[in-house]
Batch of 2 targets.
Target 1
Amino acid sequence: MAMPWIAGFMMKAPVNKIIPFSNVDGPGNRCAIFFQSCPFACLYCHNPETIHMCHNCGACVATCPTKALHMEEEKVIWDPSLCVNCDTCIHRCAHHASPKIRDMSADELAAEVKKHRLFIRGVTLSGGECMNQAPFLEELVPKLKEMGLHILIDSNGFYEFSKAPYLLSLCDGVMLDVKAVDPIFHQQLCAHSNDTVLHNLDYLLEQGKLEEVRTVLLPHHEEQNKKTIAYVVKHIDNRCRYKLIAYRPYGVRAEGIQAFGNASLTKEQLKEYAQYAQELGCHSIHIV
Ligand code: SF4
Ligand code: SF4
């Protein structure tokens, strides 16, 4: 796990990217902050370069066409002013990492968000897995709330939210991934158990902090897809939104393509899954 670190008295966290205006990361127009590193390694991950921290092997440095990367004291240094975001370095990295990471303090991030304050309703804390940075978020979120922003955590559910009551009290809600309910399938899919995810589902419902549950529906896995939908619909009992997301091969690494192929679900298949959820009693379904 990549923990936030302290330089002097200032905690910093690794930021992969900031999207100033997003309308796909929660309700309304939002700024989305993507923190680097994730304890899962989902086969269908669209941004596998967010999984691990760079370990400064240097293999990507020479591939940069604009010399935006160099080594200094055995660390890879990225110069954003020279970078043209061609992602050649990311494609070269065999470790699911990125050299384009900024270690930022809560003040620096809040200042970045403030630039866009007039045009956004809220901020979504995402990743990677933003809960890898839970202590840092406790410092950041009050600064964002001071601006009157609606704050959502986007999480894969690996971190026990019952251990972060203060952070949870600061935030408006959590958008939780329930990738698979079957424990063996979840382990194969994400290289991690789903015990904590399912515990979090119940805990966040009890706390009134579950904004949305999301499940990616996979081609050729109808039984698993339906098993997860049935479990989620029963547990949420219409207390939050349920988003059903079609698997898309874009950005997925070779192992994922090998497992799930190059094609997405059809619109008809997605609608059939939504209808299945409705028949089980779910009234608030979004399909994307
Ligand atoms: S991003 Fe990957 S290839 Fe580049 S230095 Fe880091 S670990 Fe090595
Ligand atoms: S994304 Fe930026 S740092 Fe990476 S290879 Fe391209 S120009 Fe260089």
Note: Residues 37 and 52 are 5 Å apart (CA to CA).
Target 2
Amino acid sequence: MKAMFELVRGLCITFFHLWTKAVTIQYPTQRREPPDRFRGSHRFVLNEENLEDCVACCLCARYCPSNAIKITASSDEKYQKRVLTYELDIKRCIFCGFCVEACPKDALKMSKDYELATFSPNLLYSKETLLSGPEIIRFK
Ligand code: SF4
Ligand code: SF4
């Protein structure tokens, strides 16, 4: 008797949902806009001179729980410390956002880019990758 009741209840729910609006979307022709606090792939924020604000302090690398970031530094003509190479191993990344939180210059952000699948075996994001990509983040 209980099984019969559950069957009827299930059919009622199915029947009810026949008349409600579908929640599925036809990806990839339709895409949902991720929420504002979405943590997608990383990007350097470009300043007014279209350069990254990163001063190679290595705090992002230090706070990364996955040890996914490696940085080498140099100094520019004004003796300002600049990032020479930046390597983010995206396959180690757990998208926790600690690197963004730790950055004292707000130089690193997480974009809304979630389509990270690739056929390339190279999953190291370089400084150049973080300055380009489908979503460019401009100065604050
Ligand atoms: S999001 Fe987290 S795991 Fe990924 S690079 Fe930043 S600190 Fe490391
Ligand atoms: S991204 Fe931010 S925290 Fe990381 S090295 Fe550059 S300035 Fe420092």
Note: The longest helix spans residues 2-17.
